[in-house]
Every structure is written in structure tokens, then in C-alpha cells.
TrEMBL record:
InterPro entries: Golvesin-related_Golgi (IPR053259), P-loop_NTPase (IPR027417), Sulfotransferase (IPR005331). It comes from Marivirga lumbricoides. PANTHER family: COUNTIN RECEPTOR CNR3-RELATED, GOLVESIN-RELATED. This is Sulfotransferase family protein.
């Protein structure tokens, strides 16, 4: 069994769509809103892991460690994103969604105020938190090299693959080979429109870097690993984009029809 650890705001919605297409009758979901963190008691009380174990794949905003509830051999895979872009995307996501947790507290905050508020734990090295498995056990500002090293250890021992949002096509190309998928092409999902991105300045960028130093190190580690894997393939970005465009054209009539039906 494979576990897709969906790190929030990292192109995971597109990959979830792909998973549903590949495993229409054999996927499970373990998920909660990315602004909240859940503990072991919550998992045990809210999910039937005997039933979930019957699937070929499980996805969601969980942490490393979910496999301890599953009576199967598992491998994780995930997609990382540039830490600044990911934190920025989370901020705009909350501003767009009046139903999201902490919307009332954050809606009038500047990005700098959002970062300093410490309201959203995911802002603080959220990628290391999930992959190391510490989740919300470590307070804001207290992620260390120990947690970073644990994340690396987990990746090397228990992850089938780690891709990058900024190199999504290449990541999907490699993942498709590892998962024996016939086609790596996709219909893009949930692409946010951050219309206020130009308001964020270098001071904000440095603040994100100061808060997320271990996420930056993890991202660099996985980027080098991905580059090494790609060097051993015949991946061509332009060819992939062309074929993916053809795939989207072929799907367009079906997508339009579904959208019309949903409004009837």
C-alpha cells in the first residue's frame, strides 16, 4: 500500500485528482483541515483502519506515522514546495475562504502580522513537521536540526518518492514510473489566484526564511535528490507539456459537460 502525504499548499489537489483517476475504487482518505493538527486519539476515534487497509492507496493531510495504524507494508510519497511560496499560498487561502479556521482573526492582518501571530502552526516548518512525524507535538519556533534529520531519515527509509511543486511535471513523470501508471498526464486542480502577491516584500521573504530554516534545508535536500533521479531519465519538459496539453484538450468536452450538469 502507498500513502500520499499531502503537504498543504503544494499542488496536492492535482495529485489527489490523479489518484482518484488511477484508483477509482481503491483509495482511502485520512484528512483534516490543514490549519488544524490532530493527535493519535483523534485518528483512532474517527477512522476505521481495518477498512482503510483494504485500499491500494490512502491520501490526506496527515503526518508520517499513519502506517502504524495499518496492517500492511506501506511506502509514503509526497510533494514539497518552496517554503516561501507555500506559506504565502496558505495566507491567501485563508483570506479567500471565509469558512476557514482563523479567518476572523487573520482577515485584517498583513502578511507580516500573519507570520508573527503564530496562530497557524503550519507556518513554522510545516513540511519538516509532517515528514518527521512530530506534527503539533513541538511548539511554534522549536523545530530543530533533530527534527530535520528525522525527516531525512524517514525519506530515505520509508518514502517511495519526494517530488517538488516547482518541478511538478518531472516529479509526476518519475512517480508514474515508480507506480507503474500508464500515463502521467493530468488536469490541473485547485490553482489559487494570489492577486495580492505583489504586496509581499523582501522583508517578508526573509521573515519566512528565518521561521522556516529547516523547511528550506529539507527542500534543498530533496531538490538535489530529484535532480539526480532526473539525470538518469529521458524526461523532456517541452514534450511533456505538449502531450499534457493534448490530454487536456481531449478531456475538455467531458469537463464542460460535468460542470453544466452540476449546475442543473
Amino acid at each position: 500500500m502507498n500513502l500520499f502525504l499531502h503537504i498543504p499548499k503544494s499542488a496536492g489537489s492535482t495529485l489527489r485528482y490523479i489518484i482518484k483517476e488511477k484508483y477509482p475504487h481503491s483509495f482511502g482518505v485520512v484528512n483534516w483541515h490543514w490549519t488544524n493538527w490532530k493527535d493519535e486519539i483523534y485518528l483512532k476515534n474517527n477512522y476505521d483502519f481495518n477498512k482503510l487497509s483494504q485500499n491500494k492507496i490512502i491520501y490526506g493531510h496527515f503526518n508520517y506515522g499513519l502506517h502504524e495504524h495499518i496492517n500492511e507494508e506501506v511506502k509514503y510519497f509526497t510533494i514539497l514546495r518552496d517554503p516561501f511560496k507555500r506559506v504565502q499560498s496558505g495566507y491567501f487561502h485563508i483570506l479567500r475562504d471565509s469558512h476557514s479556521a482563523f479567518y476572523r482573526e487573520i482577515k485584517n492582518m498583513s502578511f507580516e502580522e500573519y507570520l508573527k501571530s503564530k496562530l497557524i502552526l503550519d507556518v513554522d516548518n510545516g513540511q519538516v513537521r509532517r515528514i518527521s512525524g512530530v506534527g503539533n507535538e513541538v511548539p511554534f519556533g522549536e523545530i530543530t536540526e533533530i527534527h530535520y534529520e528525522k525527516a531525512i531519515q524517514n525519506i530515505e527509509k520509508h518514502f517511495l518518492f519526494v517530488g517538488l511543486t516547482e518541478n511538478f511535471n518531472a516529479s509526476l513523470f518519475l512517480l508514474s514510473k515508480l507506480m507503474n501508471w500508464k500515463s502521467p498526464y493530468y488536469w490541473t486542480q485547485n490553482k489559487g489566484k494570489n492577486k495580492k502577491a505583489e504586496l509581499i516584500n523582501p522583508v517578508d521573504q526573509q521573515l519566512v526564511k528565518d521561521i522556516n530554516q529547516w523547511d528550506y534545508k529539507l527542500y534543498d535536500y530533496c531538490r538535489n535528490k530529484l535532480d539526480s533521479q532526473l539525470s538518469e531519465t529521458d524526461f523532456d519538459e517541452q514534450r511533456f507539456q505538449f502531450r499534457n496539453k493534448l490530454y487536456n484538450i481531449s478531456l475538455f468536452p467531458t469537463k464542460v459537460l460535468k460542470k453544466i450538469k452540476s449546475k442543473l
